[in-house]
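The protein record passed on for reference:
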Amino acid sequence: MSVVPADVLPGGARGAEETAPAPAELGPRARLWPSLAAVYRAQLSRARVARIPLLFVATFQSVGIMILMRGVVDGGGEARAVVAGSSVLVVAFVALNLLAQYFGQLRSSGGLDHYATLPVPPAAVVLGAAGAYASFTVPGTVVTAVFGCVLFGLPLTHLWVLAAVIPLAGAALAGLGAALGLLAPRPELATLLGQLGMSAALLLGVLPAERMPEAVRLARDLLPSTYGVEAYARTFAPDPDWAFVLGDLAVCGVVGVLSLAVATWAYRRAAVR
């Protein structure tokens, strides 16, 4: 007499199939805003110690430029351009220069593979890192703006406009910096591109536009931070034209959305390689 296992019989096979556990369902896909908040907090805590000394350098650099320009510029529209450009230069130093270096090093070291394994949308990674780096610019920008107003005798009445200028200009410059870092084939090239972008923000944003050649003015209009500088500089007038201020801020916001979209595309392109 032979013993046959039950699972090899036709009825036994059907019974085994009926009692087999169903495959586990995958969890819901991570949503954008919770993922963005998580990446933002992680980046903020990670960069807090390393980036604070560089923030002092950015602030000291902008203050030093205003002190040097004080011997050349007396007042009027040129003084407004110097103070506004020096204030936004702090944003350019951190959001453009440092973010380009960060993503360039992240790509070369394989750090993008870590983010690619997480259930986090690509836009959350780019926006979280950009927001964290842009947050470091707030104290330095405010200090630079207050110092410049006192140095050149400009009013502090509309200093609150920086609450719109910093995030909008920061988004535009951070998106540009992230795209440069992700598209550069080598981290050294990403650092070079970030330095060149910051130099462009320095030369085209701080120097008064009236003294520039026409070709340089056209290049100035292509720089994302220009519209943040113009919006803030207009508020120093005795009777600011708020329509032009809002128009400059709107252009800066549109450029910020486009630059962050390009940075997200560059992140997807670099993560799959």
In short: The chain is about 75% helix and 0% strand.
